[in-house]
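Progress narrative, work stream C.
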Amino acid sequence: MKTARTRTVSRILATALMASALTGCSLMELTRDCDGTEARVREVGALGILDSRPDRATVTRGAEEDAPHCFADSGDVVVSTTRTYAFPGTRAEVAAHYRAAARQDGWRPDPEAEPGELSFAKGDMYLWVDFMSTGYGLTVVSYE
């Protein structure tokens, strides 16, 4: 004979399994983590586009976020890295440089980029160029 507590737990589990089946979401996906992404972290950190820069651009030192890393959040596993450059020139110079360098390296303009956003895609990776008052930053993201 089932107790009320057992029936309640059974209903909760059945509801969770039904919801995951109906939404296409697996409970296992929600527990994904960065195990096994070490090679991908190294690969993303070694991308040549990260070291490409216009003349007069200099690497900014000391930023901890520059190291390639993996993070997992709500089942999404993301490998990411950034590079930050100081640059005395214009945004137009930076944009022209990365449009040419990205194309040469096999990146294509991101079809889902917002107007005015400088964004590229290559396979399952995305490259963003973000402007700051003293330069710009590159961010590469790979969704695993």
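Work stream C, second folded protein:
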Amino acid sequence: MDIFRLIQDIKTHLKLNFDEVDRWFEKDKNILNDQPLNKGWTVQQILEHIYLTNFYLLILIEKGTKKAMRNYKDLDLQSEIKNYSFNKEHFGRVGEYGAFEWIRPEHMEPKGELNLPEIRRLISQQYHQCLDYLDLMKNGEGLLCKTTMTVDGLGKINVYEYIYFLSLHARRHITQMKNNELETIKKLKQ
């Protein structure tokens, strides 16, 4: 496994998804605040949900990063790298909106307590946090800690995979926001 390539691929994935999420903050108020016919979340609520989910995932990522860096002293990193292969397909459905039922905890549901500029600033900080963790674990240390991920039966995943999961979660909701936007445009044309 080329661990440096994996880290770069995750950084690229993060950049693409966070850049796309950031563009949603520039949308017209009609797009941001229109409630879809299915009574789902507005785009603004989805953006808040992305922030909230990132917030809680980053708590786990931070703990995992610290543990991985501690484990570096006791585990054989080169052996872990040699025996690791990143299974992108294992995560594929996470980034697909509607691919499976996703019951999120209540604390990840938008409450409308933050305004758009605050959410945007916080999501930008979260992106930089992810990059900082990847830079800290630049030699493969992120393989040295696994934590259980119950979503879609993923099981035990390492810290790099957790960061990739966070990026896929944003991708999932980008699709949802696009669906909302198309519906809003259709409504406005009627």
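The CA atoms of residues 23 and 112 lie 20 Å apart. No further action is required on this item.
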